[in-house]
Structure formats: structure tokens, C-alpha cells
Amino acid sequence: MHKTQWFPVGFVAGLVALAAPGFAGDLGAAVSGKGTTGSPAAESSSSGCPQNADGTFCWMSPDIGQAWASGFIGSGVSINVSDDFTGQPIDGDLGRGTQRQRHGDWVAQIAGMVAPGANIFKYNYLEESSIVLQDGLNVINASYGMWEPLSQHPREQAIVGAAWAGTAIVTKSADNHSREVGQPHVGDFDELTIGLIGAPSAVFVGALEHNGTPENKARLEPYSNYAGSNPEVQNHFLTVGVEREEIGQRGTSFAAPVVAGYAAILGSKFTSATPIQITNQLLDTARTDTLVNYNPAAYGRGEASLSRALAPVSIH
Predict the structure, then answer these.
(1) Do 137 and 273 contact (CB within 8 A), yes or no?
(2) Which of 66, 174, 178, 235 has its Cα between 20 and 30 A from that of 24?
(3) Where in the sequence is the signal peptide annotated (predicted)?
(4) Is 120 helix (H, G, I), strand (E, B) or coil?
(5) Are 12 and 251 in contact (CB under 8 A)?
(6) How far apart are CA 311 and CA 285, in angstroms?
């Protein structure tokens, strides 16, 4: 397969030339003001996103700290990250100081920071090895798209199959072309997105400018794809904040693993719930009162609310 036919769903348009061919882009020098070349760097000793007293960081919803305090950290759940682990390293800061990592490492780190008790498994998306589902609840995060037919890629066929069969929750980044999910970009369709539309345990994730509250409502980021007119997309579309000014990162690639982490946290409370039940719980408890001019064509079900999703004693 050719790398130009795959694209991690980040990196804003002006950064494409700095990334691997075909990247849509998430981490950006235009945001962080830092270069995108060179070997991975060690963490710096300070951060513009210091750790909060409850252990969370500035980019996280307060709901995460509340979940941790209740003992729900994703224990017993596996998050499988299929992504780019060999491409150009890029700078960012999730609160542990400036780091230079590849796209997939950032995505995996976000999921693991949201759900620190989860088991994280990394799969390079340029390899065709299968994703091995573990015992217990599995989440698969795909923060990339593909322009080739699914029939040519067994792993992506398996990811789509898991979402349709309900054997794993699949969190898929919505992409960054400011258009409706499922519509073509410069004539090409993201075949991974197309395959997931309508799947019962798939969730498309868009990016908000920040984590919303009723007092400080959030807008969809201008670059983020939106739910659009298809009810099957609207019903499986969530949004979360990506605090780009603080962390030097932007893009729906970094929204999707937050929801993957939320799913893992739910799985550590509702230990007998199926992937479809966890998916529905996230979708059914999304907030709309935290969003500017909410409508389902823009925001789908709304902003993911971990506290609301965790509130019941059990789910069915």
C-alpha cells in the first residue's frame, strides 16, 4: 500500500507539506510555533498545562477527575490504537512538558491519560497485522482515514466488522475538512468512514474549541467535520474539546481518543456491559446545553458527558 493513500486525521492544511504525504493533520507548528522535524525529544521540565490537584490536566473535562475519584479509571478495558507510529515526529504538550512524538504516540498517550487504568495496544496502520481483541471490553481508536477500498485492507475490514458486530467500540475521528462526515474531499471518499456509517458500536468524534459548560458554551472548531444531514451519522456523532492554545495540538485525531478513554472508564464501572451498550450510553447522555446554537447537523448527539454517562447504577 502507498502511504499517500492514508491520512491521519489531523494537521491543518498549511502543514501538509511538513508531514507525511497525504496527512490531513492534527499537531501543528502553526499552533505550537515549533518545528516538525528531528528526533524525538525528552520531556521538558515545565509545562504550559500544569497538572491540577485532582491529577487531571488543563485539556481534560472536570468529569474525568470526578470519575477517577470514584475509582473508575478504565481498569480491565483494552484500548487498541491503530495509527501512524513511524511518521514525522511533532511537538506538543499534554501537561508533562514539551514532547516530540509521532501521530500515533500522541493519540495513544491521550487515551491512556484519560483512562490510566486501561491497557493500551498500538498497531501501526501501515502494517496489515490483525488487531487482537483482548478479554473483556475492547475499544478501537482510528484517528485516520483511507482512500483505498476496504477490500484491499484486512485490518480496516476487521475494524469495520467489529463495529457492525458490536464486538468492540470503534472511535473514529471525524476528519478536518470542514465538511459533512461521509462526503468526499477533493473527489476522494474516506472509505473507513463510509464503512462505519450505521454500525451500532461506532462513534464519530468532532472537535470543539474547548470543553463546554452552560456558562461558557463551545463551538465546533472551524476545521472539524460536522455530522451533516445523514441521520445515521448524526445519531453516532459526538464532540469533545481540544484545548489547542494550551497543548499545541489541534484536530479531530485528538478528540477521538478522549472518547475512547471515556468508553474505557465506563467499561470499568459497567463491567458486564456490551460494546453496544457502552456506545449507546455515551451517545444517549451527551449534552446539548454546553454548545453554541446546538443542532444535530453540526454537533450530532452533542458534547460527550462522562459524568452523565457514569451516573446510573447500571445500564442495559
Answers:
(1) yes
(2) 235
(3) 1-24
(4) strand
(5) yes
(6) 10
What is d(CA 104, CA 123) in angstroms, rounded to the nearest whole number? 9
Strands 78-83 vs 90-92: parallel, antiparallel or unpaired: unpaired
Confidence class of residue 39 from pLDDT cuts 50, 70 and 90?
A: very low
Of 31-35, 148-152, 274-278, which gets the smallest average pLDDT?
A: 31-35
Residues β-bridged to residue 145: 7
Around Cβ 194, how many Cβ atoms within 10 Å? 17
Phi and psi angles of residue 160, each rounded to the nearest 5 degrees, phi first: -65, -40
Those residues with Cβ within 8 angstroms of residue 141's Cβ, 6 or more apart along the chain or in another chain = 79, 80, 81, 82, 83, 107, 111, 170, 171, 256, 257, 260
Measured CA to CA in angstroms, residue 80 lies from 114, 121, 143, 310 at distances of 14, 5, 11, 22
pLDDT tens track for 260-288: 999 999 999 999 999 999 999 999 999 99
Gap between the Cα atoms of 312 and 200, Å rounded: 21
* The three grid cell numbers given for residue 285, joined into one nine-digit string: 447522555
> How many helices and strands, by DSSP H and E, does the chain display?
11, 11
Tell me the mean pLDDT in the region 8-12: 47
Count the alpha carbons within 13 Å of 206 in the hemisphere toward its beta carbon: 33
Residue pair 234/85 in contact by the 8 Å Cβ criterion: no
Distance (Å, whole) CA 169 – CA 141: 8
Cell of 303: 458534547
Query: What are the grid coordinates assigned to 102, written together?
Result: 509521532
Q: What class does CATH assign to 3-36+51-310?
A: alpha beta
pLDDT confidence of 48, banded at 50, 70, 90? confident
220/223 Cα distance (integer angstroms)? 8
